[in-house]
């Protein structure tokens, strides 16, 4: 069976090795005579898988002791609400930087909870760039500052993060967590839906500094209260056991690749190949992101005409490439090249782009 050249934005490609192992263990996990989906979430076998997934994240991101790693449900979208519900008190406001549709959505949910301010935005510039960190006027009285570290739809990514003194920096890292080395201690909260770099959809990772977890918030529904999940090691209710199992396998796979440092080097290599195909096309492929804001995870570009774009996507699909159409909200093309997308697939795509340009212009 030929695996697809999968450039989906999420859910996205998973490492083949992980899928092969999951298939092998599917009917009989750990000699239990059961599939992982049939295990009790209170069983010793599942608890060990659950703890391995959490420990894997701690090891790979060098998460300091004063952080809690939570495995929740509801996707990154529920975090848009949980963040303000837990961290935005009535006498404070929260600051947001708008760099794309997901930050807009995060802001919209926070507005329902409390007072918010937009301290920077690239909306007027069609979200082609990330505002310069040195130009941000960070309000040290804010409850927190929220950013989206990688903008999946527009294909832009923060390289330097704002340095906040007393204001917790909160990052939606759904589409670039574990793709590059980061200093977790710079952040108050990092959250990410798993379905791009971490595993399948269904589990959401929240890395939160322990002092930000407030106990006894009687006004909060239990399921939306970080302290409840932290107290029960994310086993307050039935967790998405299959997704957590796959997360644990992906963590092992990343370790086998040499950890995040090695993954980051590979990601740069992959992204450079495709950006080179854009840059060397003499304007045939038009990258959406400004050069210094380019994402190494989602590469967005347009072709000279709608007809050329249609033909490109049609031929790409015939070739076996999947998921190259841009997000329905902005159109164009997008190649999502998360950790599990092999270098060979990026080489093939870059070569395809060059060949397509040459034959189209003949
Ligand atoms: N934030 C970012 C940056 C995303 O790319 C996405 C989904 O693609 C989301 C949030 C929404 O995630 P979920 O579908 O897990 O709620």
UniProtKB/TrEMBL annotation:
Q: Which GO terms describe its cellular component?
A: cytoplasm
Q: Which residues carry this modification: N6-(pyridoxal phosphate)lysine?
A: 196
Gene that this polypeptide is encoded by: serC
User: Has UniProt tagged this entry with the keyword Amino-acid biosynthesis?
Assistant: yes
- Which Pfam families does this chain map to? Aminotran_5 (PF00266)
Catalysed reaction, written as an equation: 4-(phosphooxy)-L-threonine + 2-oxoglutarate = (R)-3-hydroxy-2-oxo-4-phosphooxybutanoate + L-glutamate; O-phospho-L-serine + 2-oxoglutarate = 3-phosphooxypyruvate + L-glutamate
Q: What is this protein called?
A: Phosphoserine aminotransferase
Q: How is the cofactor bound?
A: Binds 1 pyridoxal phosphate per subunit.
- Give the organism the record lists: Peribacillus psychrosaccharolyticus
């Amino acid at each position: 069976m030929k695996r697809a050249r999968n450039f989906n934005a999420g859910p996205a490609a998973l490492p083949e090795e992980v899928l092969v192992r999951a298939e092998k263990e599917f009917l009989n996990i750990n000699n239990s005579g059961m599939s992982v989906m049939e295990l009790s979430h209170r069983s010793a076998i599942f608890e060990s898988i659950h703890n391995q997934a959490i420990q894997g994240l701690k090891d790979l991101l060098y998460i300091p002791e004063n952080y809690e790693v939570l495995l929740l449900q509801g996707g990154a979208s529920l975090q848009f609400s949980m963040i303000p519900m837990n961290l935005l008190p009535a006498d404070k406001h929260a600051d947001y930087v708008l760099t794309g549709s997901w930050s807009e959505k995060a802001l919209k949910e926070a507005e329902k909870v409390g007072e918010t301010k937009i301290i920077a935005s690239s909306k007027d510039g069609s979200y082609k760039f990330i505002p310069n960190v040195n130009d941000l006027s960070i309000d040290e009285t804010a409850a927190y500052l929220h950013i989206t570290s990688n903008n999946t739809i527009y294909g832009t990514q923060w390289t330097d993060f704002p340095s906040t003194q007393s204001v917790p920096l909160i990052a939606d890292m759904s589409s670039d967590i574990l793709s590059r080395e980061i200093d977790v201690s710079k952040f108050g909260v990092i959250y990410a839906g798993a379905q791009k770099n971490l595993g399948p959809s269904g589990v959401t990772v929240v890395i939160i500094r322990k002092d930000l977890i407030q106990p006894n918030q009687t006004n909060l529904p239990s399921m939306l209260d970080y302290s409840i999940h932290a107290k029960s090691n994310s086993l307050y209710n039935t967790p998405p056991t299959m997704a957590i199992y796959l997360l644990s396998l992906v963590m092992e796979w990343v370790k086998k690749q040499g950890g995040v440092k090695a993954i980051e080097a590979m990601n740069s290599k992959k992204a450079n190949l495709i950006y080179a195909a854009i840059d060397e096309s003499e304007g045939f492929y038009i990258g959406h992101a400004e050069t210094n804001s380019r994402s190494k995870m989602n590469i967005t570009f347009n072709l000279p005409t709608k007809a050329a774009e249609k033909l490109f996507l049609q031929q790409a699909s015939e070739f076996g490439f999947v998921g190259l159409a841009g997000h329905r909200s902005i159109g164009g093309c997008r190649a999502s090249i998360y950790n599990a997308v092999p270098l060979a697939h990026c080489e093939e795509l870059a070569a395809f782009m060059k060949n397509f340009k040459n034959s189209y212009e003949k």
